[in-house]
Write a structure and sequence with these properties.
The structure is a single chain. The chain is α/β, with parallel strands linked by helices. It has one domain. It is about 30% helix and about 15% strand. The protein contains eight helices and eight strands. A four-stranded mixed beta sheet has the order 3-4-6-5, covered by helices on one side. A two-stranded parallel ribbon has the order 1-2. It starts with a strand and ends with a helix. About 5% of the residues have low confidence.
Length: about 190
């Protein structure tokens, strides 16, 4: 099940459009799940915030990680909080697309109250990655580029249902599968 304040027309699973801050106050709702995963807005901590500012797409400087962590701990349930490198996560593990044969690197960090394992970056073996951020068809200084088409972006991320604006904020599903297998083995 997914929850977001914005409608997600192409989200392929059960979806609730709601304010997560309000839902996190409902402990009965949180405790109805076996495991809770959360992905608070990352723009405040992202290294691309400077690019967004330069493009006139400034961030809202919203940091919902502390409130999210507090609610998930209070729920007493196993949890995972995802965010970008630089976000104030506690003892996070990192995943990289290069570890899974993806053309995107997409470093993401995961805090959990479970003992999860991260992945090892295989950047050399991967070669030049395909960027899925900013704008399509951008050349990246020192080599590389952002995706030249939506098809290339989808392939790089391992996601076949999203459009560009969704892909730039997405987590490759293989990350969820990798962590999910570990969690299933633990609980």
């Amino acid at each position: 099940m997914g929850v977001d304040i914005k409608k997600q027309k192409r989200y392929p699973y059960e979806f609730i459009q709601a304010d997560c801050l309000e839902l996190m106050k409902d402990m009965d709702f949180l405790r109805s799940f076996d495991v809770i995963t959360a992905s608070p807005p990352c723009q405040t901590h992202s290294i691309t915030q400077h690019l967004r500012n330069a493009q006139g797409k400034s961030t809202d400087k919203i940091d919902l990680i502390p409130q999210t962590r507090e609610a998930l701990i209070a729920s007493g349930k196993p949890y995972v909080i995802e965010n970008v490198p630089g976000a104030p996560l506690i003892d996070p593990v990192q995943l990289c697309g290069s570890s899974f044969g993806l053309k995107v690197r997409r470093h993401r960090r995961f805090e959990s109250n479970l003992n999860l394992l991260g992945s090892v970056c295989l950047h050399k073996e991967q070669g030049k990655p395909v960027g899925v951020y900013g704008s399509m068809r951008d050349e990246i200084p020192k080599g590389g580029h952002t995706a030249k088409s939506i098809e290339q972006a989808r392939e790089a991320m391992g996601i076949d249902w999203m459009i560009w604006g969704e892909l730039v904020e997405a987590i490759p599903p293989i990350y969820t599968a990798f962590l999910g297998k570990q969690i299933i083995d633990m609980i």
